[in-house]
Design goal:
78% helix, single chain, mainly alpha, 12 helices
């Protein structure tokens, strides 16, 4: 009896750690827009580069601490996945660029909510590529629900469709969806490979986040290298925050959340991010629209329906 009580207490503790970790991760991600806005004196591609440089720095430290930066581990990953890793050099940077552009054009909240169209787009990609043989009717409904959410955010009845906002928002969602799809293929190949399983899955998760930040450096360094030397002490401080909290720390806490989750529901807390962005928009930009919240809420609900009803991995990408 005492053992059962101890087991129950341990499970409760793990679940609490899971929920707190995921919530802090989502809140951290919600501050991306604020940091991008602070660095607006630099070109957008340079801000993306800053995230890559400082995010790589902190993730490298974490990988070294956890032993995931070993020569053998890195060599095996590059050998097994080099084609997909090469594709991500193009896909991931463009997704982040579109996202940051939309932050500057539309504000934190709209950019964050439109980014979360990726779940619906990913479902379509999986159906087209036969990864999902059938789509439940409820998921078809979620697609139209998300589209309606976008129309509400855009307030189309006002007669002014924000084309740049729509282009950058859906562009970021499409590239993120492709990014997640490629990662899922990498996980599948990894599990099918002889001698490789789930034992070092946490290390591989971190490796993918680390590689994502590396791709930002590879893609944008030729364009923004000179801006690295223009950073003031205050700019440098903000860049360190950008690389640490909504990049490295958010991903590490996300992994802890998934690892300790016993119910499968904790991932929903990850959708708290755009609501944090909405609060920041109201506080720092002095802008608030109930239609942004309503439309964004519809997009989030559509994503939750997809997660609940599809036999998909519980992972979502928080390395945006």
């Amino acid at each position: 009896m005492e053992q059962n009580k101890n087991d129950g207490s341990e499970k409760t503790k793990d679940q609490f750690i899971s929920e707190i970790s995921m919530l802090i991760s989502a809140v951290s991600m919600g501050f991306v827009g604020l940091m991008v806005d602070f660095l607006s004196g630099f070109p957008t591609y340079s801000i993306v580069l800053f995230r890559g440089v400082f995010g790589t720095f902190f993730l490298t430290l974490w990988m070294m601490k956890t032993g995931a930066f070993s020569k053998t581990f890195l060599k095996n990953n590059f050998k097994l996945h080099w084609k997909n890793l090469a594709i991500l050099i193009l896909i991931y940077p463009l997704g982040i660029l579109f996202y940051f552009l939309n932050i500057q054009v539309s504000g934190y909240a709209i950019a964050a909510f439109l980014l979360y169209m990726n779940g619906i787009i990913l479902l379509g990609i999986e159906y087209i590529t036969k990864e999902e043989e059938t789509i439940p009717k409820i998921n078809i409904l979620s697609f139209f629900l998300a589209i309606f959410g976008v129309l509400v955010i855009m307030e189309v009845w006002e007669g002014s469709l924000l084309l740049n906002s729509l282009l950058f928002g859906l562009g970021s969602a499409v590239f993120l969806a492709i990014n997640i799809f490629i990662r899922k293929m990498m996980y599948k190949r990894r599990y099918r490979s002889e001698g490789i399983g789930r034992d070092d899955e946490g290390a591989f998760d971190t490796f993918l986040a680390w590689w994502a930040t590396i791709t930002l450096i590879i893609f944008f360094l030729p364009f923004g290298a000179s801006d690295l030397f223009r950073l003031s002490l205050l700019d440098l401080f903000v860049c360190l925050l950008l690389g640490l909290f909504p990049t490295a720390l958010a991903f590490i806490l996300y992994n802890i959340g998934i690892k300790n989750d016993k119910t499968g529901n904790v991932i929903i807390l990850g959708y708290f991010e755009p609501f944090v962005a909405t609060i920041n928009t109201a506080i720092f930009l002095q802008k608030f629209s109930i239609f942004t919240v309503l439309g964004g809420g519809l997009i989030i609900i559509a994503n939750i329906i997809v997660i609940r009803k599809s036999k998909r991995s519980k992972r979502i990408d928080i390395t945006k």
